[in-house]
Write a structure and sequence with these properties.
Layout lengths: L5 E6 L2 E6 L10 H16 L5 E6 L4 E3 L4 H4 L4 H20 L4 E5 L2 E3 L1 H8 L2 E5 L3 E3 L13 H9 L1 H10 L3 E2 H7 L4 E3 L4 H13 L3 H33 L3 H12 L11
Parallel strand pairs: 2-3, 3-5, 4-6, 5-7, 6-8, 7-10
Antiparallel strand pairs: 1-2, 8-9
InterPro entries: ClpP/crotonase-like_dom_sf, Enoyl-CoA_hyd/isom_CS, Enoyl-CoA_hydra/iso, Enoyl-CoA_hydra_C
Pfam families: ECH_1
Family: Belongs to the enoyl-CoA hydratase/isomerase family.
């Protein structure tokens, strides 16, 4: 597959995958998800690769989530195809027998934070921001956040993140257990490379088994929840309440979700 939305580089045991849409803060559209899936599969099947680094182009965002302009065109039928697309990407990331490190600068929100949750480790620069935004735009983060977030940050904090759509600093994300390390933007590349080298010095078969073992419990929670909730989310695409969030975002106006409780 030729890539338009991402960059792929493999060298000295490390595969680096970069979401390359800085003009939209690395928002992901269907093409981006498909290219990420192909790149992750390429890294998984390359026996010379021991660790994968996932990052975003520029210094504004790791990934700002789903491209809302694309979401505005979704119907339940289109949404169901999209749910299958998401499943393909998360499955290859979870099944890959090598660690994936998220290298985060700037915004890591919405679907971007869910991609972060599917990574094994996260190192962020001090200017990074984390959070979920689904209910702010008439959606729900059922692709990982509803299932995995509480395992990282605890049940109460996960509910706070999902219900309020508040954004958190890198230091706050570190304190709550969402990420592994924080450093200056200037030191981020070196810090991630140091982590990669530490992993590459370890037994690949041991890491392979450890990842499978660590994922076993959360796999059951994720996949058991994802299939029914993905159908629920697909079923609301294009309805009035869903479109209120999307049209408000695109029109740069405040949302009025309170009218749906009158």
């Amino acid at each position: 597959m030729a890539y338009d939305d991402i960059l792929y580089e493999a060298a000295e045991g490390i595969a680096t995958i970069t979401i390359n849409r800085p003009e939209v803060r690395n928002a992901v559209r269907p093409k981006t998800y498909e290219e990420l899936t192909d790149a992750m599969r390429k890294a998984a099947e390359d026996a010379t690769i021991g660790v994968v680094v996932l990052t975003g182009a520029g210094d504004k965002a790791f990934c700002s989530g789903g491209d809302v302009s694309d979401q505005s065109k979704r119907t339940p039928h289109v949404g169901r195809a999209h749910m299958r697309r998401l499943y393909n990407l998360s499955s290859i990331m979870r099944m890959m027998d090598k660690p994936i490190i998220a290298k985060v600068r700037g915004f890591c929100v919405g679907g971007g934070n869910e991609i972060n949750l599917f990574c094994d480790l996260t190192v962020a620069s001090e200017d990074a921001k984390f959070g979920q935004v689904g209910p702010r735009v008439g959606s729900i983060p059922i692709w990982g956040a509803c299932q995995l977030l509480a395992r990282y940050v605890g049940e109460r904090k996960a509910r706070e993140m999902l219900y309020t759509c508040r954004l958190y600093t890198a230091r706050e994300a570190l304190e709550m257990g969402l990420i592994n390390d924080v450093c200056s933007a200037d030191d981020l590349d070196a810090k991630v490379d140091e982590l990669c080298q530490t992993i590459l010095d370890k037994s690949p078969q041991s890491i392979r088994i450890a990842k499978i073992a660590l994922n076993t419990g959360s796999d059951q929670e994720f996949y058991g929840s994802y299939f029914p909730t993905s159908e629920l989310l697909a079923s609301i695409y294009g309805n009035e309440e869903n479109m209120e969030g999307i049209s408000a975002f695109l029109g740069k106006r405040p949302t009025d979700f309170r009218k749906f409780r009158r």
